[in-house]
Structures are given as C-alpha cells and as structure tokens.
Amino acid sequence: MYNTNNFRITKHQLEYDENGIPKRKYLNQDPGMPGPDRPGWEDLSINDTYEGYRDMVWTPLDLPKLDIDLHYIQELHNDMQRRNNDFYETENVGTLMFLKPNRCGCAGENPDWYDWAWNELPDVVEYVKQLPFKTIHQIFFVQSPKPIPVHYDEEKALEPLLRAQAPSHLHLRWSDVTDWRNEYFYMSKDSGATRVFPMLPPETQAFAYDGGTYEHGVERGFKFIERAQLVIHGTYDLPKWHELLEKSWQKYKEYAITTEHFNM
Known about the structure:
This protein is of the alpha+beta class. It is built from 6 helices and 14 strands.
C-alpha cells in the first residue's frame, strides 16, 4: 500500500480465467435497464485513452458548502407516499431518491423538478441551479448500505459525452462518520487490482470524477443518516465547467488524482 498526505493506493490480488481475464461482477447502475450494458470484459472502456481536463481523473471542486440534515433526508426517503414515482431500489446501491423524473441514458433531456423537491429542499434546488449545467437528466440522493465492486454509473452509449466533458460526474457528499484521510471510495483502471483512494479535503463537499473510462467502487457501506451523496448527471456548459475545473485545480491540485497515479 502506498500512502501520501493526499491519497492512498492499495494493491489487490484478483482471480483470472484461462484467458487471463479477471473474474468479476459486471454491474448496471442505471435504473430501468434490464441488465448490464457492459456484460463482459470486452465491453469495458478501461483500456481507452483518457483525455480529461488537465488529465484529472478525480478532483475536489471549489464550490461552497451546502448545509444538509441527513436525518431529514432520511425522513424523506422513508415517506412511502412517493416511492412509486421518484424512488428506485437497486440491489447494489440501495434506494435512489430522485429530485427530477429519471432520464437515465438520455443526455440532453432536462425534466422539471418534482414539486416536493421545490417545497422540501428549496436550498438544494437553488444550489444545483447555479452549477454549470445546461441540462440535468439524473439527480438523486443515495447511500450504499454495503460495499460495491468496480463499475460505471452511466450506460456505455453516453461515453462520447462523458469523455468530451471529463471528469464528467459531479457529486456532493456529507459524512458524519468517516475520516476524509481514510476514504472508502476509490477509482480503478484494472478491475480493482489497483485502487486509488482520493482524499476530499474538509473545505469542500463537492468533487468530480471520470465516468466513461475509469471505473470506481466503494469498500464499505453506511446508513443514510451517517453518510450520503447527491449525484448529478447532465450536460455541462463546457466553458463554465472548464472554468470551475481550472479554479478547482489551482486550489486543490495537490489532492487531484491524475492518470499517473494509476501507474504507481
């Protein structure tokens, strides 16, 4: 295991088949799809060239903090009256609570916010409306109750968009139980044999990571009242997105994970 002040790397022994391909699970995280759209090794993109902004695979974002009461978000999760239209149960990641109708895989679509999101979480809606998106096709609160092996969040058909705006996925994370210097979320380019754990400094809750080439996973699950994320998938206003990435690089470059970290 390699440790520095701002990231850590662990090495793991994988099992391989007779063709030298790792034995692993292939997950589909997109609600509504019947099965994984990357069902085999040949369908992955981990060997493709990465051309993200400043070569960043993961980076903290220089965004203001958003005050969230995780107990209140849990109460919204538990409201059974809404489960049929804006909740989705997944085997791997638990319950996703959508703030807009879910348009997974439909880049460019921009459904209206749910009325209850405006009413119950107006600060969240106003915060997100200030982010550099042209459209948002997925936005949800989530917390995995258990470890999740390496995977992609969005379907393979979106790879051209994800690569053009990489690092493409914007998350906000709140945790009352984890130490930012000992993170459980990791990025990988070899099916989890090499795991790079970034460290999100406590000055920010926001980070971005690649969603089209590198995979990611998490080694431990938590209760929603302990740790949760707001996940936002959409199409960026690229000049504004690059402006934010550059600002974030200048402030947090010592924390950024680039392609060179995966060769250590």
